[in-house]
Amino acid sequence: MSEPLATFTTDSDTGATRLRVSGELDMSNVEEFRGNLAGAGSSGTPIVLDLTLVAYMDSHAIQAIFEFAENRRNLPPLPLVAVRPNSVVSDLVRLTQLDDVIELLIVEDRPEGEM
Amino acid sequence: MFGFAGLWAISPQLLLEEIDRPGAIQPGAIAACVRRLLPVGDERQLVMKGKSLREEGSSIHTFPWAATQPKRQLQPPHDSYPSKSGNQLRMKDQLPHPPEHSLLQFFDACPIGLVEFEDSGAITRINSEAVRLLRSCAGQKSLGNIFEAFGSRWPELVEVFAQTFTSEGPLVRDHRIVSELNEPHRGSSVDGPATPTVLSFDVVRVGPNQNMLTVSDVSDSEDSQHPLRRSEGRYRMLFDQAIDGIFVLDDRYRFVDVNPAACEMLGFTKQELLTLSLSNVLISDDVFRGQALVNSLPESSTDRGFWNLRRKDGTNLVGDAAVRRRPDGLVQGVVRDVTELRNMHALSEQHQQRAMQQQSLRETLVANAPFGIALYDSNFVCLEMNDVLANYFDISRDDSIGQTPATFLPLLWPSLEPIFERALTEPIHNVEVSGFTASEPWRKRWWLSSYNPISLPGEQGGFAVQTLDISERKRAELALAEQQDQLWSVFSSIDEGFCLCEVIFDDVGQPIDWRYLVVNPLFATMSGITDPVGKTILDLVPDFEPEMIAKFGNLSVEGGVLRFQQRLASLNRWFDVFATSVGVPGRFAVVFKDQTEKREFDAALLKHSKFNGFRAAFSDSLREFQEPALLESRAAEMLGQFLEADRVHFVQFEGDFQFAKVRSEYVKSGLVRTASGRLPLDDLGTAVIDDIRTGRMVRVADASLDERFSGPQRRALRGIGVNSLLIAPVVKSGRTVGAFAVHFAEVHSWSDDEASLVDEVAQRTIVAVDQARGVIRLDRRQARSEALAGALVELEQLGDIEKQARCIVEMLTAHFADYATFEVPEAATPLIALAHVDPAMVPTLRKLREIRAQDPSAPLSVLHAAYGESQILAKVTDAVVHEYAPDETTRTLLKKLNPRSHLAVPIELGVLERGALMVGISRPERDLYDDEDLEFLRHSALRFGVVIAATRLRREEHAISVRLQKALLPDQIVWMPDFDITARYHAVSDYMEVGGDWYDSFRWPTGEVGLMVGDVVGHNLESAAAMGRLRAGLAAVAPTLAPSPADLLDALHQCAQRPGGSLFVTAACVVIDPKTGVLKYASAGHPPTLVLSPSGTVTRLDDAQSPPLTPRHTNERPERTIQLEPGSLVFMYSDGLVERRGERIDYGISRLERAISSVNGQNAETTADSVLKEMGTERNTEDDVVVVCARYTPANATFEAVIAAEPSELAGLRTKLREWLDEQDVGQSAANDVLLAVGEACSNSVEHAYQGHQNPTVAVQLKKHDHFVVATVTDHGTWGASTRRKGEGGRGTYIMASLANFYDRNSSPRGTIVTLSIPIHDTSRQDANFQL
Fold it and tell me: Do A88 and B1208 touch (CB under 8 A)?
């Protein structure tokens, strides 16, 4: 395998745990995504899932987020999911009504350099 | 010698000579006479009474009819009309005699009518004969007036005068004018059979500004040759018998002839004289003068002079001689002895000459007079007699002279003798003697004579007699008199009054009275005046109308006739009067008839016709008006104006005849209307009221005298300005309900005509009013029935009971009530609808309803009606209001609402629900409700309830039907990637019943697609169910059939013919092969399928028609094909889309074609929606509509890839897809959708399909069509439920179906094919019809 399909970055500088995903998420790396989600959630701090740099994801990723949110139902606040507008991700979040279980944050014009 | 008073006989020639002498007073007049006479004959010479013309000044004698005299003095010179018994012609005694005989007297006595006038036409003198001849016109002041007076009757006379007054001045003319008209010319005062009178008129100028008109009656001479005209040689005789001495000398001065007078004058015998010459009888120098005269005297000239002659006895005498040379050359001298005159009176020479002249004339005149002349001595011996006289009596002159009349007129002598006796001593004028001559004892004759005593030379005395034979005139007069007698007898016997009167004038000539001269017996009867003759009208009727006196007075003077009708107030009678002048100025005759009775009859007739005219006008007026109030007031007005009454009431009696309510009133202009509009009847008294009550007419001519009224009643009547009244009661059903009352302020005696007219007007008005009311009621009933029908139709359209309630109350207030409420008090949601004709009153009404609505115990609670009880309050009284509204607030509101009449009825809304409908009237002009109105409201409520209940039920049923029908239609139409297909069903409106329209689609394994639209005729659940059956049946058999539209239709036909399923069905069917684009079509009585090419051309597929699918078998099922271009649109529909009421279906199809063209290029869904909108389907309430719209869209780009069924392969596939999608330019959103959908499909295949397979692969194919990308993902594995992760929930499938407008997963043991279609260039993403 050459380049990984997606890269995962976790930080907790601001008192919350931020998981930033970059690349594509499908059935081939969904378990990795799932693992990163679990790692981020284990900190006990609020979770920010930054998907603004995800170019593609499918129902497997959505399923992973559902499961993650389900597991954190008793740990408010809701995970904050950042997406870019008019993207495959934002369409999919809406289509699957993922925003019922997470807090959706639409982030516009995110500079590339912040990656 | 003749005395001064003797008669002169003047020969025309001598007269001419006389006239020519200077100083003569009337030369013109005489000349006119003479010139007039000359052509007639020598007999008609002039007799002149009197002497010298010069001695008479014009001032001596004033003619009474001179133009300057006042009218009063205009006395007729002759009593020339006959009196009642008048067969005598008397000369008027009053005729003024001039003190001396004169030429003026001659002028007057001239037997020729003479009128002297000025150039202006003003008459200066007129003589009696002219007056006689001109008759009624003689009184005129100027010739012009005569001319005018005659103008109408004698046009010829006009001509005479017209010629007279030319620029040349009056000329001599001779005009004979025959009167054949009824001009009372003969002196008759009454028209009778006219004798034609011939008058001859001449006009001659006799001096400056002096003209003479001569008028003579030439009737006689016209008729017969006057005997006198034949005697030409009488001059000789006259010569011989002349009084003057006549000498004839030859040129040697010898006497060749002398007359006896000459002999006598000179004392020689004739024989002696004939031997002598002039010198023997003349003295000294007169001899030479005489000789010179004889020598020099020109022929036909006369020398006049005095000569001294010597008699035989030597005595001298002075002779006045007229010497003339005769045509035979001899000289003739007429000599008169004037010695005595000269000696006795020492008159001037001129005077002596004149006397001599007169002497000589005397003899000549006797001989030549136009009358008979005779001289008698005191013994009645005839001394002289002219031939005229001899002719008059048919005697010989020679035999008579020297005899007494006892000898030559033995028959007449007895009557003559007493006259002769008198004549010796006194002049006797105009003695008329009649008798027979010896030669004609069978023919009575009349003579008129005047006797003048004369002194005769050597005699004791004697007299001259001038006589005129008046037999002809007399006979005419007698005939006339006879006619008069006959006329008189006629006038005595006719039934008209007749009178002849003489006008009495005042000092200035104005008529002031008249005196009755003659009346007939009927006069007294007619006029009521008895014995009037000799009395004046003012004696008899002192207050007689002055204008009538003036009228008749003027008539009597100016002539003419009058005819008029006049009422003489003084006699209180009407007369039809014919008055005529009678030819005598100042007199007139009147024939009149008492027209009083006829007038009264005429007046009655006129009145009758007036009444009939009124009746006609009244009838017209009754027809003209339909409004009862207008009818009444118009009747009152017409009656009032016609009768000229002061007031006319139409009243209605109230309270047992205590009051009369004035419904309509007419008052004469200027009078005040009855203020109250309500009159107490007490003023009339019980007797009168009883009459009215029993329907008897009341007539009061004078209330102040009428015994039916008491004093106070009279005063009361006076107080309202009534003194005379008539009351005509109007009885309906035996009861007096009203009356017409006509009032007069003054006393008015009511005629039967008037009374019956009033009665008639009253009865007819009531009938007309009743009819009008009936018509209005009928109209209103019809109007409200129509309104009810309209409201019912509207109610059916309204699906909402609140709207229906609103509609009902509005209809009721428009046609039936002033306010209306519809309430359903016990509904789940209490309903109330209100309406009032005055929108401002609605809040009041609403407040009232809110206050009372919830109190069922209240007497008029709406609940009573809602419980099924109808109420009618025909008249809302205070008591009712009080009972209903015990509290002040409600009473105030009620007072504001002011209900006068009220109805409430229940309205059944279904099995369990009930409402109440209440209506009321507040406006005063509306009639109160009656039972009929209640019945109408009940009936209306019943119908409203039925409609409301029915619409509710039907609405429910419809909802069920629509649901059913939608359920019966296919959930999903076939999907082919090469087709963009949409179907629409439009259930038209809530209240339309369901239809049998359907659509369906079929797909064959070989790829063909079939589309069908159809219509099961009928709009109910059954047809919907039948449609479901048909569709299900066909769907079952379709896969077994060849892909042929004709076969499909046949199969459908068979389905429709199943037992119990005999249906009438139309359908259209197409089958398309997407690979080739070939379309096959067929139709069974269905509107043609349309095909729209990409270029915009629309084709009707109407050439494969077969009959509708009916129970009849059909062999023919034609089928045709058409090649579809990519992008073509196939449009199928049911007739509901194109059918409009009143429009040919062909037109609707054309409209559809245009609608389809206008949306060319859109996808199927957009096209279908646009066309439905464009065709007005949203508004269509008539039929339901199905539409199937298929666009043929074969792919124009393809992507194919096969990947190993490994999760790691997916990212690479996505990369390729992104590149392809970018190339196809489908848009970012669509590209994302395709990536997601295809990714999920592939994930499924990788995840589920290949468990245990060797080299598993997944094939991905994408085709880009115009509006979507169709993706096919194929694997050869088996999807298993067991492999699905727990909790995954099929989210991947969900995502695919959500993103695609078509998703299909076809799994079989050989593998799974997932087909999905992602729309491109389109934001809409999903449709309920295609959701899985």
Answer: no
Measured CA to CA, the distance from residue B275 to residue B1037 in angstroms comes to 193
Structure tokens at B859: 């007497």
pLDDT of residue B362: 60
| Structure confidence at residue B1321 (pLDDT) | 66
Q: Are B660 and B681 in contact (CB under 8 A)?
A: yes
With a CB cutoff of 8 Å and minimum separation 6, the contacts of A39 are A10, A19
pLDDT of residue B70: 37
Q: What is the pLDDT of residues B335-383, one digit of tens each?
A: 877 776 666 555 445 555 655 565 566 666 666 666 788 888 888 888 8
What are the CB-based long-range contacts (under 8 Å, 24+) for B866-869? Answer: B866/B823, B866/B824, B866/B825, B866/B826, B866/B906, B866/B914, B866/B915, B866/B916, B867/B906, B867/B914, B868/B906, B868/B914, B869/B904, B869/B906
Q: What angle do CA B216, B222, B227 make, to 5 degrees?
A: 100
Is B1207 in Cβ contact with A95 (below 8 Å)? no
Contact state of B1243 with A91 under an 8 Å Cβ cutoff? no
Question: B1229 touching A, CB under 8 A?
Answer: yes
Residue reference for tokens 């009597």: B556
Per-position DSSP letters for B326-391, written without gaps between them: -TTS-EEEEEEE-HHHHHHH---HHHHHHHHHHHHHHHHHHHH-SSEEEEEETT--EEEE-HHHHH
Site of tokens 């040919």: B1144
Count how many residues are written for chain A: 115
Containing H/E element for A67?
A: helix A59-71
Q: Please tell me which of the candidates B1211, B1228, B1287 has its beta carbon nearest to residue A67.
A: B1287
Which amino acid type is present at position B305?
G
Which pairing describes strands B819-824 and B659-667: parallel, antiparallel, or unpaired? unpaired
* Cβ pair B1236:A26 closer than 8 A: no
A-chain residues near B1232 (CB < 8 A)? 87-88, 91
Burial degree of B1221 (CB within 10 A; 0-12, 13-18, 19+): buried
Identify the H or E element spanning A40.
helix A30-41
8-state DSSP, B1071: E
Helices (H), B182-252: 219-223, 234-241
DSSP string across B38-106? TTT-TTS-EEEESS-STTS-TTT---TT-TTS-GGG---SB--S--TT-----B-TTPPPPSS--HHHH
Chain A / chain B CB contacts < 8 angstroms:
60
Which residues in chain B land under pLDDT 50? 1-102, 167, 172-173, 179-195, 220-235, 347-348, 1281-1284, 1286-1287, 1323-1332
The backbone torsions φ and ψ at residue B1062, rounded to the nearest 5 degrees and listed phi first, read -70, 100
What's the pTM value of the predicted model, to 2 decimals? 0.39
**ipTM given for this complex:** 0.91
Determine the Cα–Cα distance for residues B471 and B434; give it in Å rounded to an integer: 9
Q: Which of residues 1128-1147 of B touch A (CB under 8 A)?
A: none
Axis crossing angle, helix B596-624 with helix B628-643, rounded to the nearest 10: 170
What are residue B671's phi and psi, to 5 degrees? -95, 160
Nearest-Cα residue of chain A relative to residue B1284: A60
Other CB atoms within 10 A of residue B1332 CB: 14
- Residues linked to residue B468 through DSSP beta bridges, in sequence order: B448
**Two tokens at B1182?**
């008539």
Instruction: Identify the burial level of B752 via C-beta atoms within 10 angstroms of its C-beta, where 0-12 means exposed, 13-18 middle and 19 or more buried.
Output: exposed
- Which residues, in sequence order, are bridge partners of residue B501? B516, B588
In 3-state terms, chain B is what percent helix, strand and coil (to 5)? 40, 25, 35
Cα dihedral B729, B732, B735, B737 sign? negative
A72 pLDDT above the threshold of 50:
yes
Q: What residue in A sits closest to B1294 (Cα-Cα)?
A: A96
CA angle B315, B317, B319 (to 5 degrees): 155
